[in-house]
Amino acid sequence: MKHERLSADKPYLVLHEPEPDGQGSEISTTTVFLTASTCPIGCTMCDLHVNTLPGATPSGAITRQIDRALKDSNAEWLKLYNSGNFFDPRSIPPVDYPAIAERCNRFERVIVENHPQFGKRRLQSFLDLVSCRFEIAVGLETVQPRWLNRLGKQMSRDDFSRYAGEISQLGVDLRVFLILGVPGIDVVESVRWTRLSLRHAITCGARHVSIIPARSGHGWSGQAGALPEFSTTMLADAHETWLRDADGRAVVTVDLWDVSVTDVAHSRLQQSNLTQRF
Length: 278
Ligand code: SF4
Prior knowledge:
8 strands, alpha/beta
């Protein structure tokens, strides 16, 4: 497993970006990519381990990273992404919850990532400390059972649905990450399964669904060359279909990280990402 040499006192990336609030407005959002312990799940396509620490995250480090990241932030929403699972105690030490919660409470909404295997009791103890709106992002990726298995998610569609129900009962909002495309599958089939996955995520109560075109990188166990290729125009057209399917029940965005900004369809996608109402 490849790791960059990172300091446990510095987030490896901080972004200030607008997010659609679902009412037609843009909300200023700071995303802190925390440097933390490697995720033990090890999904096939995941390349996030590159920016992680090989051992457990030292206590106090996450709070120092958040303070550093928030120095220049006037954002309303905060995303704390730790290249793993927020309720994994090796990644985010529970002893730091009170200090992290104190920082979260300066924001209207805080979004973290978590896998259903981690920390139902720890979720409750964290919720006891926060007064902000809390949202958990879960990487469902796809509802195609064979692909889900091949991705090594260690989660079935039913595990996801159960977890979605549990967090909803606790008053926590749900964000869902879906992947568009896996190696060896064509573009049409990829869009079709993302459509079915989107419907499932919305049925399970997702407030926001973020669709991520599969990208090459350090994941995919050497099969990245067999990924389908999506043009920006194709993505913009597919986004319109997904928005129609969602019919205002959830925010649906397409991740633009690998999309060329010089492409005319890029601004179409950017526009449709940000101006949604439900
Ligand atoms: S659960 Fe998330 S962070 Fe962990 S390996 Fe899978 S995709 Fe990567």
